[in-house]
Design goal:
By secondary structure, the chain is mostly helical. The chain has one domain. 77% of the residues lie in helices and 4% in strands. Strands 1-2 form a two-stranded antiparallel ribbon.
């Protein structure tokens, strides 16, 4: 904002920071930072192998814990290799089916609301300069039109 005597010149976005924050955060939460996109990136993105390793390790540990003190008997009955193979199969299936746990539209909508609320609260607290720097890259092509408004 620029002060000229009793007047303050301020762009429309800066003047309506609260309203713009609400709309912007709603769009981001429903179309960009979605649960589906996050899970997709975790399971199939650049670092997906790390996610897979973590899931596989925990599933193997859960199976070992479930078998408990009967593990030697299970390994004797099934064979050590077969028991290890079953743990590997179960952990691979867990990796494959992990994304299905996040297919519930009601759950995804609820998470989108949480993301929107958190982002909106933080955006509304930004100084006008920080707010402008945050939004400017998204509107750089249409900057002249926005300045005129």
């Amino acid at each position: 904002p620029i002060k000229l005597g009793p007047y303050v010149l301020q762009g429309i976005f800066l003047k309506r920071q609260k309203e713009v924050s609400e709309i912007w955060c709603d769009i981001v939460a429903r179309e960009i930072i979605t649960l589906h996109n996050i899970i997709e990136e975790m399971l199939h993105g650049k670092k997906s192998e790390t996610t897979g390793k973590v899931i596989r390790r925990y599933i193997r540990d859960i199976i070992d814990e479930a078998v408990g003190i009967t593990r030697p008997m299970v390994e004797f009955t099934m064979g050590i290799e077969q028991f290890a193979h079953i743990k590997d199969l179960a952990s691979e299936k867990a990796v494959i089916f992990t994304s299905y746990a996040f297919d519930d539209p009601v759950f995804c909508e609820d998470r989108a609301r949480v993301v929107k609320t958190l982002m909106q609260a933080r955006m509304e607290q930004l100084s006008p300069k920080e707010f402008q720097h945050l939004l400017r890259p998204a509107f750089q092509e249409d900057e002249m039109k926005l300045i005129i408004l």
